[in-house]
Amino acid sequence: MTASNVEIGPFPTPAIQEAVLYKSRQALIPVSVLRLVTADSEYQFGFNPWIQMERHLLFQFNTEEVTLKRSTFSLMVRVAVLAYLISWLWRRF
Fold first, then answer.
1. pLDDT for the residue numbered 73
2. Single pTM value for the model
3. What residues does 19 pair with on adjacent strands?
4. In angstroms, what CA-CA distances link 86 with 81, 82, 89, 90, 93?
5. How many CB atoms within 10 Å of residue 6?
6. Rounded to an integer, what distance in angstroms lies between the CA atom of residue 8 and that of residue 87?
7. Does the domain at residues 7-68 carry the CATH identifier 2.50.20?
8. Where are the domains of the chain?
């Protein structure tokens, strides 16, 4: 990384026009995604929870706290798992 470029794989990206580091939590796990906008493309990078990416970035960026939305499917799966666990516990004890 340099002040104006990020090298991705074997090719360097053009000058960065906009950089935003999105931070959120998924359950209890911190999540961060870096969005880079260039003249011709947009890139998004997800980072492991233990990496504090803002310490390593060598260029200016904005930080935004966001709330992750849950899909209807995700909610249905959660309800089904909870119902199964309650049923299992009811029969077990």
1. 94
2. 0.67
3. 36
4. 9, 6, 5, 6, 11
5. 19
6. 49
7. no
8. 7-68
CA distances 8 to 43, 54, 73, 76, Å, are: 10, 18, 34, 38
Measured between alpha carbons, how far is 60 from 64 in angstroms, rounded to an integer? 14
pLDDT tens profile 6-42: 776 655 666 788 999 999 988 788 889 999 888 888 8
Structure tokens at 58: 């060598």
How far apart are alpha carbons 15 and 12 in whole angstroms? 9
In sequence order, what are the residues at sequence separation of 6 or more whose Cβ sits closer than 8 angstroms to the Cβ of residue 63? 20, 21, 23, 54
